[in-house]
Amino acid sequence: MELLKSDFYYELPEELIAQTPVEPRSASRMMCVDRKSGAITHDHFYNLCAHLKEGDLLVMNDSRVIPARLYGEKISNQTFIEFLLLEQKGDKLWEIICRPGKKAKVGTRFSFGGGRLIAEVVEVKDDGNRIVRFECEGNFFTALEDVGQMPLPPYITAKLEDKERYQTVYSRELGSAAAPTAGLHFTPELLDELHKKGIKTAFVTLHVGLGTFRPVKEENVLDHKMHSEHYFLPEETADLISETKKNGGRVIAVGTTTCRTLESVASFCGGIKASEGYTDIFIYPGYEFKCIDGLITNFHLPESTLIMLVSAFMGYDNTMNAYKKAVEERYRFFSFGDSMFII
User: Which domains, ranges and CATH numbers included, belong to the chain?
Assistant: First the structure.
């Protein structure tokens, strides 16, 4: 089967790329798509309960974004350096991208926040990334919160006034370099409303890497190599999924990261069970879903692996038609944009 990157292209006017989040969170619009018929209806996210039934289960990614962008200086001569934290490798040991890279040789030391954080390069990897060891007084993540900035996607150029708006209200496990944005629409009030209606919630953790923004370069989609991300599916969530399926309820993934976690475990662990590891699953049309019955997601970049995942779930023609309709109806796109509910 040949699947071309260009098959997933659509025209998007630049003014439809959301630069700031709406207030309140749940006021975003929501396009509802029936994946069997392709029928489209329009609503708002605060009406999500009306589209769910008692006994349904929403599975969410509780990963929390770290303020992973650091601006500092080389200690020996005060020249500028920028770090972007990618993944924790040990106690205060991180893999990073930095620029300008030529300044970051093994043994070089850098200062951030006037010495609140000190970093030393301990390894230069083959791909140009660095492994650095940080020093600080007290808790590393507290220091990072003080001096780091949110690593907003490259298409967002507006300044984020409140760091918490790039976190879900249920985020708790530190480790992501980008937000699981489908969950940004939830408010505590909406979660209460869901529980009162008998709709359950459960959590997985997948730490979102910057690979989520990596463009597909190969024209033949099947030649694309997916990035790997760390996930954790707790026993409590596995039990809730089994119970929901047994009772005829629907398992609805909040976000592509949750979808990838559930489908990875279902595909490679012999069914849904407590599991932890790394996944580089690539879901594109032709994939047979083994766990999820519904998906809540945002509108994704043209030619991205995420629009390919959506196409696998609700069908290629339905997807391209829905995106065309979203442009016509002036929906807001990408991380701070509107929502899509596919069932």
Answer: 5-65+162-342 (3.40.1780.10), 69-147 (2.40.10.240)
